[in-house]
Amino acid sequence: MTPAELVERVMALGHQRLAETLELLHPDAEWVVDPGRPPLRGHAEITAFVAGELERLGPEVPEPLTTSLTANGDVVLVYGQLRIPHRTGRHFVEMQQVAWVHEVKGDRVARITSFKSWDEARAAAGIAPGTPPTRRIRYWRLALGLRRPAAALT
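Below the sequence we write its predicted structure tokens.
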């Protein structure tokens, strides 16, 4: 499996199939949910974080709408938006720009860093502005035969 294919699978499985997702991550993988916070390290910390966020958010889990993936060797950049439902007072949906940089070592993801800016993510991935995507795809879960788009916690 290429780094791009591995990242597609990780993004498609998401938290709904966390056990399968974790099989694709190194046991000591790091996930930088927010650059202002220390990274989550290892399957246990990632699992605890996901469980806590699902409990905190309830049914209002943000949903990533991915637009493209660009591979640069063992680094894979994913561009997208987060669809964030709100039900405080009146119901509305907020859209936020988001990108993820996945660093692959061997046959597993070693680090995932979330960015709120596409430009920052592209620079962190070492990808020049204007580089065409390796793959454009909106709903990886559907492409992989899974039922609905993946939801994200960042």
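The CA atoms of residues 12 and 146 lie 8 Å apart.
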